[in-house]
Design a protein that fits this description.
- Its EC number is 3.5.4.32.
- Keywords: Hydrolase.
- The protein is α/β, with parallel strands linked by helices.
- It is built from 15 helices and 17 strands.
- The strands form two sheets. Strands 1, 2, 3, 4, 5, 14, 15, 16 and 17 form a nine-stranded mixed sheet that branches. An eight-stranded parallel sheet has the order 6-7-8-9-10-11-12-13.
- The longest helix has 22 residues.
């Protein structure tokens, strides 16, 4: 199958030359970009899509999420709380998760992401309630295949329950042996290391306050044996910092260095509370910056500009919907830009640089060089934006307009792996109303049950 995106007003490539091309076409064959140029000629079998007055970017790459949390938005018991009390309150609801809940939670999050310009996402699922099937990652992968998003699933885990000094209740943690066994099963069954892979697996022990050092070490060894990446939360709050110092005698980044969790195959979520030396330690590793979550939970501001200068790979992420309350990737770029300028003022990242972080930056954090760039030989993950709305009138730079203007975050078109999955803000692969109805019923039943039985 081939398609020609004809007469695109502006193509922002994020290639090595940082080229921005005006009035060009993009020719896609199957899942690959085969040509970008003016007046490309094609035969009658090629679908032609008129892209006049549209801007094209590589799809956004979301590098940190908790998809199941889409079912737990706006729960009154945990509003206006910082991370640790927020988590303690939500564990009581999350302990009722079912495979159906995980599947529909993923479909909700995927729908939001695709409609707001995200073509590749990861997920960090670490809640495996006792007496429930341990194959919850499989339910997410099935949802990703159904809806048509490029997906990096991580086998998250918690092994340090409350009885052993951790934060989560014992009913949502697992034995180390079960975690490692399922991690290897998932890698063997699903991980695809080929070019343009739609599904990959990474290993992601949850956080320093919910897993043991032994699990971190053994997960590291398994991941490197199998050639997959590693992910965890890090340096998100002062509470986490204090926990690490009291339990391990190390600050969070120091702990990661001790455990061998540093390098190009590792990326961390948040990374807010660290010093200059620790930034140097993280050189070559990746960071998922989660602006909305960090603001709502009052966690702090990620030092994005300083991390980039230190050689750390930086990306943008929506984080879980129970702290962000949405999976809106376009809006997350806007907030990342504004938060960066709040911290750095005139030394902050400009619109182009922030969009590059959200696209190519995300790809690099996930260890990929086949996405995040619009050029020949790269994946046909393309998002088209319509900036002709009145909300963009008077804006003289489309890139600035894309980041700072507009009254909607629904994109004109999202193309993943050469297939149009969103058009005019409407998901084409599944019925979002059916997803919403079923997901909301499942969510309501879980919350009602917990409130009635506590």
């Amino acid at each position: 199958m081939s398609m020609l995106l004809k007469n695109i007003s502006q193509v922002v490539t994020f290639n090595d030359k940082d080229e921005i091309l005006n009035g060009v076409d993009i020719l896609v064959n199957n899942n690959e970009i085969v040509s970008i140029g003016k007046n490309i000629s094609v035969d009658e079998n090629v679908e032609i899509i008129d892209c006049s007055n549209l801007m094209a970017l590589p799809g956004f790459v979301n590098t940190h999420h908790h998809l199941y949390q889409t079912l737990f938005r706006g729960i009154q018991e945990v509003q206006e709380k910082p991370l640790f009390p927020w988590l303690v309150g939500l564990y009581e609801f999350w302990k009722h998760l079912t495979p159906e809940a995980v599947h529909y939670g993923a479909l909700v999050g995927f729908s939001e992401l695709l409609r707001t310009g995200c073509t590749t996402t990861m997920d960090h699922h670490y809640v495996f309630p006792e007496n429930k099937p341990g194959t919850l990652i499989d339910d997410q992968l099935r949802a990703a295949s159904q809806i048509g998003i490029r997906f990096h699933a991580t086998r998250g885990s918690m092994s340090l329950g409350r009885s052993d000094g951790g934060l989560p209740p014992d009913c949502v943690v697992q034995k180390k042996e079960a975690i490692l066994e399922d991690s290897e099963r998932l890698i063997n069954k699903y991980h695809d290391n080929s070019k343009f892979a739609m599904q990959r697996i990474a290993l992601a022990p949850c956080s320093p306050f919910s897993v043991s050092k032994e699990l971190m070490i053994q997960a590291r060894d398994l991941a490197r044996k199998k050639g997959v990446m590693l992910h965890t939360h890090l340096a998100e709050t002062k509470d986490e910092e204090n926990f690490c110092i009291e339990r391990y005698g190390r600050r969070p980044v120091e702990l990661m260095e001790e455990l061998g969790w540093i390098g190009p195959d590792v990326w961390f979520a948040h990374v807010i509370h660290l010093n200059e030396k620790e930034m140097e330690t993280l050189k070559g590793s990746g960071v998922a910056h989660c602006p909305s979550s960090n603001m709502k939970l009052n966690s702090g501001i990620c030092p994005t500009t300083e991390l980039l200068k230190a050689g750390v790979k930086v990306s943008i992420a929506v984080d879980g919907s129970a702290s962000n309350d949405g999976s809106n990737m376009w809006e997350e770029v806007r907030r990342a830009y504004l938060l960066n300028h709040l911290k750095y003022g005139t030394d902050g990242l400009n619109a182009y640089e922030m969009l590059k972080v959200a696209t190519r930056g995300g790809a690099e954090v996930l260890g990929r060089d086949d996405i995040g760039i619009l050029e020949r030989g790269k994946a046909a993950d393309i998002v088209l934006f319509d900036l002709t709305d009145v909300a963009y009138a008077g804006c003289h730079d489309p890139l600035v307009g894309l980041v700072t203007c507009g009254n909607t975050s629904l994109v004109k078109m999202t193309i993943v792996n050469g297939k149009v999955v969103v058009k005019d803000g409407i998901l084409l692969t599944m019925n979002t109303e059916k997803i919403r109805t079923e997901a909301h019923k499942i969510a309501s039943d879980i919350v009602k049950y917990e409130r009635e039985h506590r």
